[in-house]
Design a protein that fits this description.
This protein has three helices and nine strands. It is α/β, with parallel strands linked by helices. Bound molecules: inosinic acid and magnesium ion.
């Protein structure tokens, strides 16, 4: 077993930067959802570290649920969004905030946003830690973005390459020989 850090070419978002992003987003969400009924829905598994750190910066009552989706194989989106495990509560009356690790083609998040609109949530917004705007194949914007990044394949802090590297404490760029 090799140390995971060995396969990282460059750190793109450091632990310190992640902490300040979470603080800033948490403050914005706290302000915007003051008189609302906040239901955070994290998209598994990539959201795990982000949602955990972000919610500690939200100074409001909130409810937390998770949805398991898949659309990626290796380093490319299949464009085919599947719900692997659904939430078990009725979203009517809730102000849903969908939390995802990264916005790339836009397919996953727009599909999930539409799903909760159809289920009659009071409102539906999207918060993504990273935004790869150049990767977009459909028109879609998140309501809250931690950081815009170039069109590179990144791992760490929840983001995986074939289920590995989610446990890195920062966001890094993989050495190309590991996936090409
Ligand atoms: P989209 O549907 O193309 O916007 O893809 C969103 C999902 O693809 C994310 O939730 C990630 O799971 C995955 N993804 C997109 N870009 C990357 C990346 O650079 N590294 C790891 N996963 C990624
Ligand atoms: Mg993923």
């Amino acid at each position: 077993m090799s140390n995971i850090n060995n396969n990282i070419k460059e750190i793109l978002v450091s632990e310190d930067e992640l902490a300040s992003i979470n603080k800033k987003l948490g403050q914005m969400i706290t302000k915007d959802y003051k008189n609302k009924n906040l239901l955070i829905i994290g998209l598994l598994k990539g959201c795990i570290p982000f949602v955990g750190d972000l919610m500690k910066n939200i100074d409001l009552d909130l409810r937390l649920e998770f949805l398991k989706v898949s659309s990626y194989l290796g380093t490319s989106s299949t464009g085919n969004v599947k719900i692997k495990e659904d939430i078990t509560i009725n979203v009517e009356g809730y102000d849903v905030l969908i939390i995802d690790d990264i916005l790339d083609t836009g397919r996953t998040t727009s599909f999930i946003k539409e799903l909760f609109i159809q289920r009659n949530a009071k409102s539906v917004k999207v918060c993504c830690l990273l935004d790869k705007k150049e990767g977009r194949v459909i028109e879609f914007d998140a309501d809250y973005i931690g950081k815009d990044i170039p069109n590179l394949f990144v791992v760490g802090y929840g983001l995986d390459f074939n289920e590995k590297y989610r446990n890195l404490p920062y966001i890094g760029i993989l050495n190309e020989n590991y996936y090409k």
